[in-house]
Write a structure and sequence with these properties.
The protein is about 0% helix and about 40% strand. It has a five-stranded mixed beta barrel. The protein is globular, with a radius of gyration of 16 Å. It is mainly β and about 150 residues long. The chain contains no helices and nine strands. Bound molecules: zinc ion. The site of zinc ion (ZN) has 8 residues, from loops.
Amino acid sequence: MTATAVPAIEGWFTTGDDPRLLGSRCTTCGTVSFPKATGLCRNPGCRGRELVDHELARTGTIWSYTDAQYQPPPPYLSATDPFEPFALAAVELAEDRIVVLGQVASGFGVEDLRVGAPVELVVEPQHEVDGVPQLIYRWRPTGEVAS
Ligand SMILES: [Zn+2]
């Protein structure tokens, strides 16, 4: 029997066919934060203290990207031993006015990425703990570059 996969980090995203990142939004200035801000708005020019839960957009465009050639420090757990480089993308979510860094979906590398290219949020298993797959969010390229 296969164990049910669980989010590697609780409370950062929903799972299922239509996963969403879980952030917060300031009711004073509208600034969206991911991961959730607590206590104070992250906008340095705002004194807002009321933050509400906010689901971020599922799709965005690549703002920047890089190749992770070295294993990140803990709590990162490599899915492979030895570590295999993966691609990282900083994705701009226009309607949320935020850039969210994340790994690129399995099967894609930096050669598949271009600044401005569309991506969507997916949730994929990263590693296992006691036989239970741990899910993380990733960005998956969805099409060609708009030129
Ligand atoms: Zn604010």
